[in-house]
């Protein structure tokens, strides 16, 4: 399906979804499942070629904000059932998430998060450094104060999720137009009435922006402020490890953001470079690895000397408070958006697809997402920074 480049797009649609990543695919699937006709997904490259292209995506419900906990928890359940609905193997590995904490303040913050999570049915708990080391034998406990662990979390393959959702959507009649670039939106009064693409214009009744790191540009076309900026994130793969690596949680050194977990026959290593400039460049730069190795020498010494075999660079779509933008434009009521997930999009995509479906159908979503409206930045109040950010 990723090669289905259209010479033309349909002349009209009830819904045009801009973006063929996990958010666009989930939204298309949930709308089609609800019986919404005439849906077109427009994607500038191949499906999952943006942020969703990352090799492995974490899935978790360990957050500091109740709304993020709910979106993560509901999505986890959807991923556990993905082989039934929509019906695809997404290589879900429920290994847990392990946050390593090296200060009393971090431990206190995560304890508060665990209490919130437990109240919402998430089985997270605080553990001692020694138990963290048993779960992840690579760790040095030197300097660790505590750790937060949830056995229900883990990781899966974003590309397989996108193909699973998009395939089911296509079978339900959704048109997926890849290699199709959006160049402009037509508005009349308070409505979006058309989408201009590299393969023709689509007259439409509703536009849903799920364009990830490119969402600010789409918003500008409609006169809607979507404050999303692109930031490059890099990761690397170790060469195959023999004997095989132990099965470990998705392990995160919270202070440095260094993280690592199993990947096929080795490990995946990642870290957010604090000096990374905003931009759409996704060139992988091996020098970046030295940042990870510097942290690993102290926190997981064996990882510092492991041979690597290449890596990957992709884009985070970051908002000022590291929370998503989900909602309906106040100025253009038929312009909906789900973007700016700041690294949490994959793990929240099933629940957000449901929410956007319900917003479109004008019915009550399972949770109130109004705090995630893009309008929160216009008023300068009501932002709720998410603390459990990597």
UniProtKB/TrEMBL annotation:
One GO CC term on file: cytoplasm
Annotated FAD dependent oxidoreductase domain residues: 14-359
InterPro entries: FAD-dep_OxRdtase, FAD/NAD-bd_sf
Gene Ontology molecular functions: oxidoreductase activity
Keywords: Oxidoreductase
Domain of life assignment: Bacteria
Entry's transmembrane regions: none
Entry protein name: Sarcosine oxidase subunit beta
Lineage summary: Bacteria, Bacillati, Actinomycetota, Actinomycetes, Kitasatosporales
């Amino acid at each position: 399906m990723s090669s289905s480049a259209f010479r033309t797009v349909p002349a009209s649609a009830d819904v045009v979804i801009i973006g063929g990543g996990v958010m666009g695919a989930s939204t298309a699937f949930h709308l089609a499942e609800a019986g919404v006709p005439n849906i077109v997904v427009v994607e500038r490259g191949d499906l999952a070629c943006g942020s969703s292209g990352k090799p492995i995506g974490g899935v978790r419900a360990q957050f500091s904000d109740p709304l993020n906990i709910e979106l993560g928890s509901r999505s986890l359940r959807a991923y556990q059932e993905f082989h039934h609905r929509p019906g695809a193997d997404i290589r879900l590995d429920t290994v847990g998430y392990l946050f390593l904490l090296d200060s009393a303040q971090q431990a206190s913050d995560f304890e508060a998060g665990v209490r919130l999570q437990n109240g919402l049915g998430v089985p997270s708990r605080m553990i001692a450094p020694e138990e963290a080391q048993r779960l992840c034998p690579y760790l040095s406990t030197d300097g660790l104060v505590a750790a937060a662990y949830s056995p229900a979390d883990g990781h899966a393959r974003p590309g397989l999720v996108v193909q699973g959702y998009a395939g089911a959507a296509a079978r339900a009649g959704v048109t997926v137009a890849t290699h199709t670039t959006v160049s402009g939106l037509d508005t009349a009064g308070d409505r979006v009435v058309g989408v201009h693409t590299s393969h023709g214009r689509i007259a439409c009744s509703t536009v849903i922006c799920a364009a990830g790191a490119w969402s600010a540009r789409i918003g500008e076309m409609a006169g809607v402020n979507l404050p999303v900026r692109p930031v490059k994130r890099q990761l690397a793969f170790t060469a195959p490890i023999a004997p095989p690596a132990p099965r470990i949680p998705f392990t995160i050194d919270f202070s440095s953001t260094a993280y690592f977990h199993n990947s096929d026959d080795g490990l995946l290593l990642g870290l957010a470079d604090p000096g990374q400039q905003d931009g759409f460049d996704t060139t992988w730069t091996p020098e970046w690895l030295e940042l990870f190795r510097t942290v690993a020498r102290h926190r997981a010494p064996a990882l510092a000397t492991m041979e690597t075999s290449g890596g990957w660079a992709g884009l985070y779509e970051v908002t000022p408070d590291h929370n998503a933008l989900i909602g309906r434009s106040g100025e253009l009521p038929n312009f909906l958006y789900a973007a700016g997930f700041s690294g949490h999009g994959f793990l929240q995509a099933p629940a957000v697809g449901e929410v956007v479906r319900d917003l479109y159908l004008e019915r009550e979503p399972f949770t109130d997402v109004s705090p995630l409206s893009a309008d929160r930045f216009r008023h300068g109040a009501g932002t709720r920074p998410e603390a459990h950010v990597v």
